[in-house]
Design a protein that fits this description.
Number of helices: 9
CATH superfamily of the largest domain: Ribonuclease H-like superfamily/Ribonuclease H
Radius of gyration: 23 Å
CATH architecture of the largest domain: 2-Layer Sandwich
Helix content: 25-40%
Order of helices and strands: EEEHHHEHEHHHHEEH
Distance between the termini: 33 Å
Largest sheet: 5 strands, mixed
Structural class: alpha/beta
Shape: elongated
CATH topology of the largest domain: Nucleotidyltransferase, domain 5
CATH class of the largest domain: Alpha Beta
Length: about 230
Amino acid sequence: MREIVLDTETTGLDPNQGHRLVEVGCVELLNRIPTGLTFHAYVNPERDMPMEAFNVHGLSAEFLSQHKRFHEIADEFIAFIGDDTPLVIHNAEFDHKFLCAELKRASRGLIARERLVDTLALARRKHSAGPYNLDALCGKYGIDNSRRTKHGALLDAEILAEVYLELLGGRQASLGLAEAVTTQVVAVGGVAVARARPAPLKPRLTAAEVAAHREFVGTLGEAPIWKSYLG
């Protein structure tokens, strides 16, 4: 299963008041494991940067003016997140309204609410007491967030991916080992896609090791219940 962990930075709290998206970062998960594929872009908001927002993420209007506007990166962004891939977001309503405002302004289709996986809601259901912000959850799960001196969309998405796995019960619960034997991940147009392997993976045991194991099993006396699976 493919999922995208996503975070944004903005000039303020409400796109209906003229605030704009200034950064977007995405991390791809496949079977709940990061693939290493990411999407990141700074976005020129074509407006000033309020000091309150600058103090959060440190992105100045001068710096952002050197980057592309959202409609210039919209198609690349849409291609990365796909048409129906679940989007894992902390406080998803906030990011969703900004993304939809930018997509609408760029004459692109909006993101359906059904795609959203809100880790803030997951944290509230799992833990009876807050706080539920990203730093607090990192402390709760022992996740290193020392690089997070200011908010940054890609860094926050990477950290959120770790938090998300912990909220679901930890990495071990979703390693997808069965799928790993029969599938491989390949990049197609910058996106990781799981495809069936043309042939099963070759055994790592040598013929001598297999023979030695069979000889050992023969010394066990009454056949264990699993012996029949050796063939």
